[in-house]
Design goal:
- With 213 residues, the protein is an alpha/beta fold.
- It has helices at 9-18, 41-50, 64-67, 89-98, 143-157, 173-182, 201-211, and strands spanning 24-30, 37-38, 55-60, 78-82, 102-107, 125-129, 164-168, 186-188.
- It has a single domain (6-212), classed as Aldolase class I (TIM Barrel), CATH 3.20.20.
- Helices cover 33% and strands 18% of the residues.
- Helix 5 (143-157) packs parallel to helix 6 (173-182).
- The longest helix has 15 residues, at 143-157.
- The two termini are 23 Å apart.
- Bound molecules: zinc ion.
Length: 213
């Protein structure tokens, strides 16, 4: 949602509802874990008032355990914390689960897939960042494509076929197709697809859905 223009929000949300968009992806950045600010807590409350699409919070903050309670996390929502952001990962995942939400671990492009192994029993999804976190409109880190496949293999080998893989960063139509082939299940749409300036929101959604069929 950081890519959405504040002037068109209501219209956009209606288009998302019409097109069965599964989640609204909310990036939360503290200016410490990533070099940008995006503390969209009050805005996400307004999304709730306008539609009932579940929220997908992506916390890019240090000490996430202290901050999870700041959010209006509900059953059906997703929340991911970064593996690199804390040594209290299990506590964070438990707290997210205690709200009835699905808990995920996010990893930066440089973090190997194998780092999730100690937490594999506690996660519902993994968020593989395919660009360096902090800003919209960044270039794909090409090595992360194979990491999606490595992650899928690792999860399957550990009897976690049910764990979904979310991809976040430069999910353009062509990249999305490759990401799908590598095993991604949830696609975060930004300025390279749904929020492209040369397409309407509906056209962007349609093209993205075609790419990942
Ligand atoms: Zn994100």
């Amino acid at each position: 949602m950081m890519c959405a223009s504040i002037y068109d929000i209501e219209e956009m949300l209606q288009a998302f509802v019409r097109n069965g968009i599964e989640y609204l992806h909310i990036d939360v950045m503290d200016g410490v874990f990533v070099p940008n600010f995006m503390l969209s807590n009050s805005i996400s409350k307004q999304y709730r008032e306008k539609c009932n699409i579940p929220l997908d919070y992506h916390l890019m903050v240090v000490n996430p355990l202290e901050k999870i309670n700041w959010f209006d996390l509900r059953k059906g929502d997703l929340m991911s914390i970064h593996l690199e952001s804390t040594d209290k990962i299990k506590e964070c995942l438990d707290l997210i689960h205690s709200k009835g939400a699905k808990a995920g671990l996010a990893i930066k492009p440089q973090t190997p897939a194998s780092k999730i192994i100690p937490y594999i029993k506690k996660i519902d999804f993994v968020l593989v960042m395919t660009v360096n976190p902090g800003f919209a409109g960044q270039k794909l880190v090409i090595e992360t494509l194979n990491k999606i496949a490595d992650m899928r293999k690792l999860l399957d080998e550990n009897n976690r076929k049910d764990v979904m893989i979310e991809v976040d960063g430069n999910v353009g139509f062509e990249n999305a197709k490759i990401m799908r082939e590598k095993g991604a299940n949830i696609f975060v749409a930004g300025t390279s697809s749904v929020f492209r300036k040369d397409l309407s929101i509906e056209e962007g959604i349609h093209k993205l859905r075609e790419a990942i069929k």
